[in-house]
Amino acid sequence: MTTAPTPPNPDTDDLEWLRAIRRKLTSEFGHDQKKLGDALREREKQMGDRIVRTQARLVPAKP
């Protein structure tokens, strides 16, 4: 049994899935950019050498 592909919704574009993730992530921090940045820097410290950087950080993570 084959089903026809769902036609694209003209009210959304190809990046809506990414925007939904961004909204969910920022809502966890009350849409506060500083809280989100602090949490991401903390996560960087936890990840250690598993993060590959191709550019220098704008704001260094504090040890």
Structural class: mainly alpha
Helix and strand succession? HH
Rounded to the nearest angstrom, the radius of gyration is 18 Å
Proportion of residues in extended strands:
under 5%
Main pleated-sheet profile: none
Tell me the number of strands: 0
N-to-C span: 57 Å
- What's the helical proportion of residues? 40-55%
Low-confidence stretches: none
- Which shape, going by the Cα principal axes? elongated
The pLDDT mean sits at: 81
Note the total helix count: 2
Keywords:
single chain; 63 residues; mainly alpha; 2 helices
General description of the model:
This protein is mainly α and 63 residues long. The protein contains two helices and no strands. It has a domain of 30 residues. The radius of gyration is 18 Å and the shape is elongated.
Task: Tell me briefly what this model is.
With 63 residues, this protein is mainly alpha-helical. It has two helices and no strands.
